[in-house]
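[audit] Reproducing an earlier prediction to check determinism. Same input, same settings, fresh worker. If the tokens differ from the archived copy the diff job will pick it up downstream; this log only records the rerun itself.
[audit] input (380 residues):
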Amino acid sequence: MIHSRLTQERYQRREDAAAKRYKRHVDAAAKLVIIAVIVLTGVGLWKTSDKRGQKLLAVVRHCTAVMGTDCSIAATVEPGRRAYAEKFLRRAEAALRNAEALLSTWLDDSELGRFNAAAADRHVPLPAESLHVLHTAHDAFMQTNGAFDVTCRPIIELWRTAPRRGAVPTRAELDRARTESNWDLIRLTDSGAVKLADTVRVDLGGIAKGYAIEQAADVLRRAELAGGLVEVGGDIVCFGRPPSGESWKVDIKDPFDAGRLARLRLPNGGAVCTSGNYARFSQLAGRRYSHIIDPRTGQPADVTHSATVVAADAVTADIWATALSVLGPAGFDLMPHGVEAMTVTGTKDDPKIHCTPGFRRLMKKPTMTTISTPRRYEEE
């Protein structure tokens, strides 16, 4: 259900504001990161049959201006249940937009937007959902040894404004931004949070989308559909049976070219998220800088060109896709059990694909042939 304070009028205003704000920050090409084959058809309704000859109906709802990008929500149902599926697709979209209203830090009237604007030593009440995401983000900060850090927004803003200023941030500016906002300056309570300095600001870009996708997928799961899929900006959750009755198929974009790097087959569904430096970047003095920042150094994370993670839920996949963009394949050893990943490093002429054996088992042979794996996985 949409948050009680979100009237339809405010709902539309927020969509318009989101489209304008995110246009500066999100490249439309990001949607090409990974896309399920079901969505590539571009149609809203079709029929197919599984291996047993049972006819299935796939219904797709396309949405715009969701977290600054487009999304597709799909349901697989038996014939005669189209109206039922469409009802839950609408509810799933509402769940996406509600999550954005709670967690977006680029909307001033979101719950987290108000936290960022709050003065020091003032308790800011937050809904249970927002608190849960903040606690999860703090846990991820610890698990990734600081490579995933939602408190580094002042550093992100320095790099985002660098092209307008005509200069990269100085070491002194980055150090000051790091001391102005960090986890030591945030106190979480049972009902909200307190900033210990006016300068503290969070950016949930590495977790909010995963949370929103998971909320929408939960709506579809509770509807007891034959299968379902939620895709936002290329990040995906799928479950149950696809329309074909076979495995869900997800394409991973080649970070160096316009083609496909690999295709994943997910017989049991799951979440797939990718982060990369090829779709969103800033350019200054002829050099490209990734939009992904290493919170530990304050510098753009340019070594890993893309990181794709498969996990049971989109929050975990989203977090680790961001963290591995910073850590590279060395971060594989930090990942929890059941999380599989692939990173692409090197250059266009000499690419390196690093993947866990579990990830490799999910895909066909990639178009790039150089593959290496960490020692921990070689010993399996």
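[audit] rerun output stored. Observation attached for the diff report: The chain has three domains: 1-104+204-246, 126-195, 272-380.
[audit] end
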